[in-house]
Amino acid sequence: MALPAPTALQRGVVWRFLAAMACGNLLWETVQMPLYTLWLTGTSGEIAYAIVHCTLGDVLIAAASLGFALLLAGRGRWPRRAYGRVALVTILLALGYTVFSEWLNTEVRDSWAYRDLMPRLPVLGTGLTPVLQWIAVPLAAFRWAVRGRRGPSAVA
Fold first, then answer.
1. Does 148 score more than 80 pLDDT?
2. Which of 10, 23, 71, 149 falls between 20 and 30 A from 77, CA-CA?
3. Predicted pLDDT at 133
4. How many folded domains does the chain comprise?
5. Quick check: 4 pLDDT over 80?
6. What's the pLDDT tens digit per position in 123-136?
7. CA 71 to chain CA centroid, nearest Å
8. Residue 34 has pLDDT above 50, yes or no
9. Per the domain annotation, does 18 fall within a domain?
């Protein structure tokens, strides 16, 4: 069974969400960089590359999470209905992936490391700021994505 083509409203909200995620994550990645050892060991170019690389990865995580959330919870009515449910599922999927990825890359692969300044979640040892990032940035992005929508096309 083929999925229906997205409406102009759906496309617009998705693109606004992803644009907001790109801007928000670029800012967040820049601000949290001093909590990683690369801040002390990397060159300016390596740090800039890491920030851009992580931001692009964040946008991909957001896009994939939103896509899965729309399949699981959107049922074609989104964004007029089920907006909050889709946002919640998107955030939970992205958060789950992030916790796994942080663990994999800090504990198993040693791809990056936290500085002692990074607050960590008990038991998991995952950095607190990446977890907060996947709550705060998507919430703001979802809110901004529907900002200004009123009248017959308003999101409920």
1. no
2. 23
3. 98
4. 1
5. no
6. 889 999 999 999 99
7. 18
8. yes
9. no
Range of the domain at 87: 53-109+120-148
Dmax of the chain from CA atoms? 54
Q: What is the dihedral of CA 145, 137, 20, 14, to 10 degrees?
A: -50
pLDDT score of 149: 59
Taking the C-alpha atoms of residue 18 and residue 142, their distance in angstroms, rounded to an integer, is 9
Q: What is the pTM of this model?
A: 0.91
Residue 5 lies in a domain: no
Q: Which of 60, 90, 77, 87 is nearest to 4 (CA)?
A: 77
- Other CB atoms within 10 A of residue 34 CB: 13
Residues in the chain, total: 156
DSSP code at position 82: S
Q: Using CA atoms of 26, 30, 33, 34 in order, give the dihedral in degrees to the nearest 10.
A: -160
Question: Does residue 142 belong to any structural domain of this protein?
Answer: yes
Can you spell out the DSSP letters for 4-47? PPPPHHHHHHHHHHHHHHHHHHHHHHHHHGGGBTHHHHS-HHHH
pLDDT at residue 96 tops 90: yes
